[in-house]
Amino acid sequence: MIETLQAIDAFVWGPPMIALLLGTHVFLTFRTGFIQRKLPEAIRMSFRKDPEGRGDISNFGALATALAATIGTGSIVGVATAILAGGPGAVFWMWVTGIFGMATKYVEVFASIRYRVRDHNGNMLGGAMYVWERAFKRPDGTVPWWARLGAGAFAAFAVVATIGTGSAVQASAMTGIITAALPVPAWAVGIVIVGLVAAVIFGGVHAISSVCEKLVPVMAVAYAGGCVVILALNGAVLGDALALILECAFTAKAAFGGAVGSGIVMALQFGCARGLFSNESGLGSAPIVAAAARTRNPAEQALVAMTGTFWSTVVICALTGVVLVSTMITYPDIQAEILDNPTFYTGAVLASAAFAKIPYVGTPVLVIGMVAFSYSTILGWSYYGNRCVTYLLGRRAIMPYQVLYVAVAFLGAIGVGDVVWTVSDIGNALMALPNIIAILLLSGLIARETRHYVYEGHLDEVCERPIPVLEGK
């Protein structure tokens, strides 16, 4: 069964999916007039409070929660995995996916806010499931079967992905790092994780966003600062590391004596795959929490949301990549160890070995970064699953889902997570498909409204479009 699941996983995350996601990024970049050029303004908007906007949480709260879910193990271990499989050139292509992925993040969040609804308590709900239902509704008010299928498929695959990617995998990563550094049993770490997670997620989006608003800036700045210190220590080879990354991105150079992957195709494939996975642009996850943001119009929060891709991939993943490559140049014995034990060296092992070579700061930066990133990811993805299970089964399903979510976190902590990880990885790819189809179909409408709000100077305009109240569930 495991071999079958791994084969399915390799297929759904193969070249066709990478081509679809990267192609969507490039297409939407041109469709939105290269919205990335508005990044400086978007960053400034991230930190302002907008009392005139409609929503449940602040712009920054929504961004912080989305970043909490995005900056996870992929920001460290995922980068190391890309370098092992695709060579140093993979870092460059990972960075490229972040640049173009900002446009996709902008469009999917724009659609989510434009078609969001309210529940019976007045709380905002959004995401690809509501985009499918509302954007393609017939004039008589009925929803076509294919739109309901798109909505249901996205929500179902997202629930599967949240349980694995958001819970089991992150808990497993935290436990592995902690038990390697401290003499504590995995089950004890699992109990602590369950307690810390349950204390927050049962409080709903307000509790989650409140914690993420405080945790995300501190953990991101601390990790980035630690990486800068390491780069300073590796300053003598920093130029060589950057040159090697660029050279391997465009030539078939065998890096580190053949210890890691090489070739343009491998660098492109693994760099794009890990980059797309790390920033989640196109998966449809971030729009779920972005729909709860207080915003005057869809373009305002969409601009804020696209900065998440910039921070997670263009900054954090790039820093990790340069740290790993420069450290491998400085310490050739890492290359020798990989050649001697090719099956033993995984992304996690490479990251641990590289950071451990840096005296005093290396291991603390890795441990603190991994624990903080993984914990925040558990919080962020719990909200995604909460909203999707509510759409599928109603409000009564929230509590059972949350109990299952924290239970799976414990199972991941004690090592019962391999199958769950593979299934959730498949769910990640499959939830992206209905999301991408929806935003491509709506790209023309969103491009027109972007022109009005962003390029014609109406970004402060309050959108008066009514937000319907969801009936039934």
Automatic annotation (TrEMBL):
Coiled-coil annotated spans: none
Domain of life: Bacteria
Keyword entries, A-Z: Cell membrane, Membrane, Symport, Transmembrane, Transmembrane helix, Transport
Main location: membrane
Signal sequence, start to end: none
Gene3D superfamilies: Amino acid/polyamine transporter I
Membrane-protein topology: Multi-pass membrane protein
UniProt subcellular location: Cell membrane
Entry's transmembrane regions: 12-36, 57-84, 90-111, 145-164, 184-208, 215-237, 310-331, 366-384, 404-423, 429-447
Keyword Transmembrane helix among record annotations: yes
Family, as annotated: Belongs to the alanine or glycine:cation symporter (AGCS) (TC 2.A.25) family.
Database matches in NCBIfam families: agcS
Protein's name according to its UniProt entry: Amino acid carrier protein
